[in-house]
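Fill in residues.
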């Protein structure tokens, strides 16, 4: 089932159309973020409006974690025609994240 159909089944087609960020096929993994909420649902036809805050908080948390993972796990790459993309210096990334309170330690 395409992501837009799955999303429409969960929160309703009108809400999908009013939220362009949910219409992207790249967002397919975001549905897993709903499992981060405290309550468990065996089957859902939609996300109740009273639970949308928890859903969006889980999406934001999952996205933030993915970005941080990409920053830390990056490696130097040599691409086509010898084009080089250097890795970010991990020590500077960690220092910047600590300075902004993103990570503790």
């Amino acid at each position: 089932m395409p992501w837009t159909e799955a999303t429409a089944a969960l929160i309703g087609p009108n809400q999908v159309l009013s939220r362009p960020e949910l219409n992207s096929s790249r967002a397919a993994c975001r549905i897993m973020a709903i499992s981060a909420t405290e309550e468990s649902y065996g089957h859902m036809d939609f996300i109740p409006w009273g639970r949308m805050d928890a859903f969006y908080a889980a999406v934001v948390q999952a996205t933030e974690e993915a970005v941080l993972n990409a920053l830390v796990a990056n490696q130097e790459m040599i691409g086509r025609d010898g084009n080089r993309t250097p890795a970010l210096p991990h020590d500077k990334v960690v220092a910047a994240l600590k300075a902004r309170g993103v990570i503790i330690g």
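Helices lie at 3-11, 13-18, 52-73, 90-99.
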